[in-house]
Amino acid sequence: MLNLSVCKISGLKKKTSVLLVDNSGKDNQLIQIPTRLLLHWKKYLLVFNVLVILMFGILALIIYQKTSTHYKEKLAQANKVKSLIDLKKVKESFKEIDESIYRINGFLDARGLHDFKLANSGGEYEDFEITDINEISEYYENKIHKIENTLNITPLGLPVSGEISSEFGYRQNPFGAYSTEQHFGLDFRGKIGDPVRATAHGKVEFAGVKGGYGNCIIISHGNDLKTLFGHLSKINVKPGQHIKIGDYIGQIGNTGRSSGPHLHYEIIQNNKKVNPKQYLKL
């Protein structure tokens, strides 16, 4: 244990000697400290504290300036982007997308395809600020993907390039001079061997000979929606095969109950045959 002894030693002006005494009598040490420091230690401590506070203040100011500069640059970039984007035009574009979605939903609804409709379409982002542009773009990107998926499984367009030779509904029986019959599809003119293509994504449910249809293909598109292709001369698919829009599935022929080369095309919804003509275009 050390004892502290303080004394002034003659000949050492302006300094005070401090003797550190060990109780055991060993390792005594004498150190000299400026007398002014001992007399005015409170003042020196105050100066030290002021210097520390000043140092931290300067450091905080530097950090603030750098942070402020960073955010000013970001704000300048945002203002530059804002000046390049016509917000009014963007809103008009999104409004047109909403209107298109509304029309597509109307098309699907008119055909009883309620399960295919796109929920919550129309006007969600009519009022927004430029800062929301990324969120809104992502929203409409998801909408477009849903539209694409919906249309992929909805039979649209022509299965062949030929003209329609017989409409859906009652017609004169081609095999009876004065009788009429119910025609459940559309007939398309063509030559034997002309390509027949799928009108939607789906899975082949049937591929083979089917009564008066002759060589026939039935494709299931989900949601109880199917397409039928009859009187084919050749079948290029097998049952269980997955089909995409535009896939070459067979060739026009004259098989089954047919009066000449043509394609008989049906759309079956919920086990009911509907007029394919309403699916030829949006």
Notable characteristics:
29% strand, ten-stranded antiparallel β-sheet, Glucose Permease (Domain IIA), 4 helices, alpha+beta, 282 residues
What's the helix and strand layout?
Blueprint: E1 2-7, E2 15-22, E3 29-34, H1 35-39, H2 41-84, H3 87-110, H4 133-152, E4 164-166, E5 169-172, E6 180-183, E7 186-189, E8 195-197, E9 202-209, E10 215-220, E11 225-235, E12 242-243, E13 248-252, E14 262-269, E15 272-274
Antiparallel strand pairs: 1-2, 2-3, 4-7, 5-6, 7-14, 8-13, 9-10, 9-12, 10-11, 11-13, 11-14, 14-15
User: Major sheet: size, sense and barrel closure?
Assistant: 10 strands, antiparallel
Strand content: 25-35%
Shape: rod-shaped
The helix/strand series, from N terminus to C terminus, equals EEEHHHHEEEEEEEEEEEE
Count the strands?
A: 15
Provide the structure class: alpha+beta
Task: Tell me what the structure shows.
The N and C termini lie far apart (100 Å). The strands form three sheets. Strands 4, 7, 8, 9, 10, 11, 12, 13, 14 and 15 form a ten-stranded antiparallel sheet that branches. Strands 1-2-3 form a three-stranded antiparallel sheet. It is α+β, with helices and mostly antiparallel strands and 282 residues long. The protein has three domains: 2-39, no CATH class; 87-152, no CATH class; 164-279, Glucose Permease (Domain IIA). The longest helix has 44 residues, at 41-84. The chain contains four helices and 15 strands. Helices cover 33% and strands 29% of the residues. It has helices spanning 35-39, 41-84, 87-110, 133-152; strands spanning 2-7, 15-22, 29-34, 164-166, 169-172, 180-183, 186-189, 195-197, 202-209, 215-220, 225-235, 242-243, 248-252, 262-269, 272-274. It is rod-shaped, with a radius of gyration of 44 Å. The model is unreliable at 4-12 (pLDDT under 50).
